[in-house]
C-alpha cells in the first residue's frame, strides 16, 4: 500500500516595507506592496507534515500538538481546497497520477518559536502548510504560484515561499491573480546582511493583525497617505538599495517604514500600540549608535524594525553584530544571548532557499 506523506519547513520573514491593510479581506489582497527578508535560522521555522489517506474521514490539523478547527470557508480550508484543486488538475491531465485529491488530509505543524507574538508565526505556518501540500501532491508549481495560495492563508506568508529578499507585488486585478511574491535578490547576493532578533516579550499580541488592519483601513487618514504617496517610491528605492548592497539606504528606509507602520497603528481609532517601553528603548539605542557613527564620518550601522508586536529585529552588516550585541547586553543586562530561542534574543542569518 502506498503512503502519501510529505514534510517541509518554511522560515519566518520580516518586512522592511510593511504590509498593513487589505483591499479584499476574503482573497487577502493588500492595499500596498511590501518587501521582506526571509530569515535563515533553525529556531524560527514552521515544520509541517501532510498526509493523505483514504481512511481519513475529514481534513484535520494540529498546531504544536493541539488540534485546530478547520472552519468551513476559513483560511485553512481555502488553502487546503486550492491545493486539492491543483492536484485534481494534475490528475486530470496525467492519468498515471494516483487519484489522491479526493482523500482527506491530516496536517501536523510545529513552530519552534513563540506563536502570535509578532514573530510572523502565521507567515511561516501557512508557507509551510502550502509547501508541504505541494510536496505531498507533487505539484509542478513555482514558488510565485504557491505564494498566491499561501497569501490566502496569511498575507505575509506569501513572502516566506522564497529565501533572501522578497517583494509582494500588490497587483491590481480583483481576482488576485497578479498579487504574489517575487524574488528581489537571493540570500547569496548580500551574505553580509544579518538579523538579530530581540524577543522583548513572547506573550500573544493584544490586537491580531487581521482586526488591527481592518480598523486601520476604516479609520486612519495616514494610511491613505501612506498607500498613495509613500510606499510605491519606497518599494523602488529599497529594491535598488538591495541590488546595490547599499546598507545605508536600506537601513534608512527600513527604519522609516517601521516608524510609519507604528504611526499608522497609532492613527487608528481606537489606537493600537504594538511596541512597549523596551521596544522604544531599543530604538533609542540604535538611533544613538547610528548618530555616533555618522558624526564620526561613518554610515548607518544598524536598522531596527518592528512588526505587530514588541519584538525588535535589527538588521546589520555582520561586522557590526558583535558591537551591537555588546551594547544590548550593556543596556539590557538581563539579556541572554544565544541561550535558547525563547531567551531575550538570538541571532539569525538571512535565509537562502
Ligand atoms: O500576514 P499577517 O496578517 O500576519 O500581517 C503581517 C503584518 C506585518 O507583519 C505587521 C507586516 C508585514 O508585512 O509582515
From TrEMBL:
GO terms for molecular function: ATP binding; diphosphomevalonate decarboxylase activity. It catalyses: (R)-5-diphosphomevalonate + ATP = isopentenyl diphosphate + ADP + phosphate + CO2. Pathway: Isoprenoid biosynthesis; isopentenyl diphosphate biosynthesis via mevalonate pathway; isopentenyl diphosphate from (R)-mevalonate: step 3/3. GO terms for biological process: isopentenyl diphosphate biosynthetic process, mevalonate pathway; sterol biosynthetic process. Its EC number is 4.1.1.33. Belongs to the diphosphomevalonate decarboxylase family. Keywords: ATP-binding, Lipid biosynthesis, Lipid metabolism, Lyase, Nucleotide-binding, Steroid biosynthesis, Steroid metabolism, Sterol biosynthesis, Sterol metabolism. Gene3D superfamilies: 3.30.230.10, GHMP kinase, C-terminal domain. This is Diphosphomevalonate decarboxylase. Coiled coil: none annotated. It comes from the Eukaryota. PANTHER family: DIPHOSPHOMEVALONATE DECARBOXYLASE. InterPro entries: GHMP_kinase_C_sf, Mev_decarb, Mev_diP_decarb, MVD-like_N, Mvd1_C, Ribosomal_Su5_D2-typ_SF, Ribsml_uS5_D2-typ_fold_subgr. It holds the Pfam family MVD-like_N. GO terms for cellular component: cytosol. Residues 195-353 form the Mvd1 C-terminal domain. Residues 10-181 form the Diphosphomevalonate decarboxylase-like N-terminal domain. The keyword Nucleotide-binding applies.
Amino acid at each position: 500500500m502506498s503512503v502519501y506523506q510529505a514534510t517541509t519547513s518554511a522560515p519566518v520573514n520580516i518586512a522592511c516595507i510593511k504590509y498593513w491593510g487589505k483591499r479584499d479581506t476574503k482573497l487577502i489582497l493588500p492595499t500596498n506592496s511590501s518587501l521582506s527578508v526571509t530569515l535563515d535560522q533553525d529556531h524560527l521555522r514552521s515544520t509541517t507534515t501532510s498526509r493523505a489517506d483514504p481512511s481519513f474521514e475529514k481534513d484535520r490539523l494540529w498546531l504544536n500538538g493541539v488540534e485546530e478547527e478547520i472552519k468551513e470557508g476559513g483560511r485553512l480550508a481555502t488553502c487546503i481546497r486550492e491545493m486539492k484543486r491543483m492536484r485534481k488538475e494534475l490528475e486530470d491531465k496525467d492519468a498515471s497520477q494516483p487519484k489522491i485529491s479526493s482523500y482527506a488530509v491530516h496536517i501536523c505543524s510545529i513552530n519552534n518559536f513563540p506563536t502570535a507574538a509578532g514573530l510572523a508565526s502565521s507567515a511561516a505556518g501557512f508557507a509551510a502548510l502550502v509547501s508541504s501540500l505541494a510536496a505531498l501532491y507533487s505539484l509542478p508549481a513555482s514558488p510565485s504560484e504557491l505564494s498566491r495560495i499561501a497569501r490566502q492563508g496569511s498575507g505575509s506568508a506569501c513572502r516566506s515561499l522564497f529565501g533572501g529578499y522578497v517583494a509582494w507585488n500588490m497587483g491590481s486585478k480583483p481576482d488576485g491573480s497578479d498579487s504574489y511574491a517575487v524574488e528581489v535578490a537571493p540570500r547569496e547576493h548580500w551574505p553580509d546582511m544579518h538579523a538579530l532578533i530581540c524577543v522583548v516579550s513572547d506573550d500573544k499580541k493584544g490586537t491580531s493583525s487581521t482586526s488591527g488592519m481592518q480598523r486601520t483601513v476604516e479609520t486612519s487618514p495616514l494610511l491613505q497617505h501612506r498607500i498613495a504617496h509613500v510606499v510605491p517610491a519606497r518599494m523602488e528605492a529599497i529594491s535598488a538599495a538591495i541590488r546595490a548592497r547599499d546598507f545605508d539606504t536600506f537601513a534608512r528606509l527600513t527604519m522609516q517604514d517601521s516608524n510609519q507602520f507604528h504611526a499608522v497603528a497609532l492613527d487608528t481609532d481606537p489606537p493600537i500600540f504594538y511596541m512597549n517601553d523596551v521596544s522604544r528603548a531599543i530604538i533609542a539605542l540604535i538611533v544613538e549608535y547610528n548618530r555616533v557613527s555618522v558624526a564620526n564620518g561613518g554610515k548607518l550601522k544598524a536598522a531596527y524594525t518592528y512588526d505587530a508586536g514588541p519584538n525588535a529585529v535589527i538588521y546589520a552588516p555582520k561586522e557590526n553584530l558583535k558591537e551591537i550585541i555588546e551594547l544590548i547586553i550593556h543596556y539590557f543586562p538581563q539579556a541572554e544571548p544565544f541561550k535558547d530561542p525563547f531567551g531575550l534574543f538570538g541571532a539569525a542569518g538571512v535565509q537562502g532557499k
